[in-house]
Amino acid sequence: MAPVLTSPLVSTQWLADHLGADELVVLDASVHTAGTGLETTWQTARESYEQRGHVPGARYADLVEAFSTPDADVPFTRPGAERFESAAGDLGVTNTSTVVVYDDSVGEWSARLWWIFRSFGFDSVAVLDGGFTKWRDEGRPVRVGALRSAPKPASHVGDATATTTFLAGEERPLWADHERVLRAVSGEQPASLVFAAPESALGAEHPPIVPGSTPIPVDTLVDPATNAYLRRPALEQAFASVLDADEIVTYCGVGSAACVDALALTVLGHEKVRVYDGSLLDWWRREPEALAS
């Protein structure tokens, strides 16, 4: 039986207690970046996963390619249902799995993959609070090297064995697009716009962010000593200016850090949060005056 989740976050102790459990799938979703603003580049962290280590049994989830739409106009555009099903199934995820995701940063990539799973109706998924940094710093076991390919889940019917297909649910309205953000800016369809990227990620000179935004950067939501999310009272204080909004749209550079804010808001019980997929790269591309400023 798969472990039962009671929160969008699980502790390192919870994961240590459940490692090896039936139907538990642990995914390393790390992505490495270089540069700032419009000069930012992104690379798969598979080499680091193999050479520097990972949680034992964890499989590498490639957000750069497998869990995105590589030929889209903006990096990390979310995948369609078929691509998501294929990527999750290739990692051994079934519809009865419990999935725990982590990364080696402040949690933006694990939160991104968590949001993608949830957007396709898969709720048995959580983020490792503190990620690989906290796991490693606590002296917990680390495995080096590549894992063998994920086993293809199988179901037994009589004497026959058939491959089990992972199926995505109907996509939920957890994403915002350019038009939705424009309506928030104009007041036609109000929403609080939350900018989640640290200012340093944009570089010294950059086009303007979306008008009317409230900056709540991800590095103010985690404890620098542990890399774990702040406790509830501190999170409530961080989001105090927007918590009463009927709808909140989070965004960042491409839609990764935005998912950290979205996860924190979910922990706080806000029921109408959307992530602007493509975020500033999409906004700047569609708003020529922003690039001309």
Note the topology.
Elements: E1 9-10, H1 12-18, E2 24-28, E3 31-34, E4 41-44, H2 46-51, E5 59-60, H3 81-90, E6 98-102, H4 108-119, E7 125-128, H5 131-137, E8 154-157, E9 160-163, E10 175-176, H6 178-186, E11 192-195, E12 214-215, H7 232-238, E13 248-251, H8 257-267, E14 273-276, H9 279-286, H10 288-292
Parallel strand pairs: 1-7, 2-5, 2-6, 6-7, 10-14, 11-12, 11-13, 13-14
Antiparallel strand pairs: 3-4, 8-9
Helix pairs in contact: 4-8
Strand percentage: 15-25%
The number of distinct β-strands equals: 14
Morphology call: globular
Strand order in the sheet with the most strands? 1-7-6-2-5
> Which structural class fits the helix and strand makeup?
alpha/beta
Number of helices: 10
How helical, in percent, are the residues? 25-40%
Tell me the Rg in angstroms: 19 Å
Q: How confident is the prediction overall: mean pLDDT?
A: 91
Poorly predicted parts: 154-163
Largest β-sheet summary:
5 strands, parallel
How widely separated are the two ends? 56 Å
SSE order, as H and E? EHEEEHEHEHEHEEEHEEHEHEHH
Describe the fold and architecture.
The protein is α/β, with parallel strands linked by helices and 293 residues long. It has helices at 12-18, 46-51, 81-90, 108-119, 131-137, 178-186, 232-238, 257-267, 279-286, 288-292, and strands spanning 9-10, 24-28, 31-34, 41-44, 59-60, 98-102, 125-128, 154-157, 160-163, 175-176, 192-195, 214-215, 248-251, 273-276. Helix 4 (108-119) packs across helix 8 (257-267). Mean pLDDT is 91; it is low at 154-163.
